[in-house]
Design a protein that fits this description.
By secondary structure, the chain is α/β, with parallel strands linked by helices. It has 7 helices and 5 strands; from the N terminus they run αββαααβαβαβα. The protein has one domain.
Length: 201
């Protein structure tokens, strides 16, 4: 969630970020959920870039691989139901602005894709940012989370994310260097709220 122009919008997005964190805590029933999580803060001695995720669901794999713990979390029926619904919404969004070129990932395709993830869920909320920032947010969410989630704040940003995924898919199709975003889910704010409401009431 980059800082948007305008006090009202900034407050609105910030409020949603906090609300999303609180709702995810109800679903996952763990304290290891943070907003503005600095994903590489323990690697500062290496002088590397440390993306901040708008919301991150742990536990956080900062000192060891936690893939086996994430595997166990996926056995929780409520968590599975929630993620399956997000996968369905991603399909809807890709098909809404696509023409079949991008084949959306199935839930089973994503399960073990990013086994050495830094966190379980990596969420980026995007509003008044450039397309280059959108790409950075999408890649960070996909690289750092077992499931990466991008929440476009407007229909314009939703279309931009779909075009971005199509671009990365085309690069792979054309056998050029690219980044695999198969674990990335494009979900609107309304879809996220609906999915959470179904499991936490």
């Amino acid at each position: 969630m980059k800082v948007p122009r305008g006090r009202f919008r900034n407050d609105e997005l910030r409020s949603y970020q906090i609300q999303l964190k609180d709702n995810l805590k109800q679903l996952f029933n763990i304290d290891a959920i943070q907003e503005e999580w600095s994903s590489m803060r323990d690697e500062y001695n290496l002088s590397i870039y440390s993306p901040r995720l708008d919301v991150a669901v742990g536990p956080f794999a900062t000192h060891e691989r936690l893939g086996h713990i994430y595997d166990d979390m996926l056995l929780n029926p409520e968590i599975e139901g929630f993620l399956r619904r997000l996968v369905e919404y991603n399909h809807i969004n890709l098909e809404r602005y696509g023409d079949g070129f991008v084949l959306p990932s199935q839930y089973e395709d994503i399960l073990y894709m990013n086994h050495n993830a830094r966190c379980f869920l990596a969420v980026e909320i995007e509003h008044l940012v450039s397309r280059k920032h959108l790409m950075g947010g999408a890649i960070n969410a996909s690289a750092l989370g077992r499931f990466g989630i991008v929440i476009p704040w407007s229909d314009e940003k939703l279309r931009a994310f779909v075009k971005l995924v199509r671009y990365l898919q085309y690069l792979r199709y054309a056998e050029k260097n690219t980044f695999n975003t198969s674990n990335l889910l494009i979900v609107t704010k309304e879809q996220m709220d609906t999915a959470l409401l179904e499991v936490i009431g």
